[in-house]
Amino acid sequence: MFSDIIVLPDIDGVESRSLAKGLKLLETLAGAVQPLSLGELAASIDLGKPSALRLIRTLSALRMIQRIEGERYTLSFPWPARRSHLLVELVRQVADAPMRRLNAELGETVALAYLHGDLIRVVSVVESSHHIRMSNYPDRILQPYASSLGKAIAAFLPRQQAQRLLDVYGIYPLTATTITELAAIRDEFERVRKSGYAEDREETVAGGMCVGAPIATPEGNVIASLSVSTPKARYTERYAEQLPALLIGEAQKIAEGLASSLTAGEPG
């Protein structure tokens, strides 16, 4: 697994030690894929719960972190976590071969997305070789309620974290079939959780169809997703029946590769 991101030197003075502990706490939250409890935060900065709680209250008063449901904590703003950068690069490396395999087999555009704090971004794309295709591009910010990549991540997050993604992106129609009512979006997330995959049926782009599957860490936290996109004209009934299982299988292989790499300590 990854080692601690910050190694604290010997520091003289209570104020300096508190500052160092506070920075490490922020770094810990930035590197986490889901909100953390008081106990988890206390352990990460090597403090007892009472001392950690005092530090948390100070950072909360400064609006740097916030408490959410279930007595858990998360950052109030983006923080450049080194662990997150390393993890997304590892996911990208592990996903490269499965993505190219899907692209070669199907001839369609294959994309990989990753959860960056309050946003879901495309981090890798293998484009279709067809002249008429559904395209994608790295760094594109995805709709958590419309795109299959976004749904495949948002549906598996704690409800408040998923709501935060919706609040940050905003909910508005992209096509005539985009789901925009909150209750309907939550029903869609429930369907995604039950089926294990997400669909975008012309909800992002008219004439575009897309299927996405979640990618989880060894702890079961969904941090990424994999998708195949195709024009509606090539999305036959047989294709629609076979694609979800194929995509789920490749996403599982990526998750297994990620687990093996983390166990081996890569990247170090």
Q: What best-fitting shape do the alpha-carbon axes yield?
A: globular
Distance between the termini: 8 Å
Q: Radius of gyration in whole Å, from Cα? A: 20 Å
What name does the CATH topology of the largest domain carry?
Beta-Lactamase
Describe the structure.
There is one protein chain. Residues 1-15 have low confidence and may be disordered. This protein has 268 residues and is an alpha+beta fold. The chain has 8 helices and 8 strands. It folds into 2 domains: 14-75, Orthogonal Bundle (Arc Repressor Mutant, subunit A); 82-263, Beta-Lactamase (2-Layer Sandwich). The longest helix has 27 residues, at 237-263. The strands form 2 sheets. A 5-stranded antiparallel beta sheet has the order 5-4-8-7-6, sandwiched between helices. It starts with 13 loop residues before the first helix and ends in a 5-residue tail after the last helix. The radius of gyration is 20 Å and the shape is globular. 35% of the residues are buried. Helix 4 packs antiparallel against helix 8 (237-263).
Defining traits:
alpha+beta, five-stranded antiparallel sheet, 8 helices, Arc Repressor Mutant, subunit A, single chain, Beta-Lactamase, about 20% strand, globular
List strands and helices in order, with pairings.
Blueprint: H1 14-31, E1 36-37, H2 38-44, H3 49-61, E2 65-68, E3 72-75, H4 82-106, E4 109-116, E5 119-126, H5 148-154, H6 159-169, H7 182-195, E6 198-201, E7 208-216, E8 222-231, H8 237-263
Antiparallel strand pairs: 1-3, 2-3, 4-5, 4-8, 6-7, 7-8
Helix pairs in contact: 2-3, 4-8
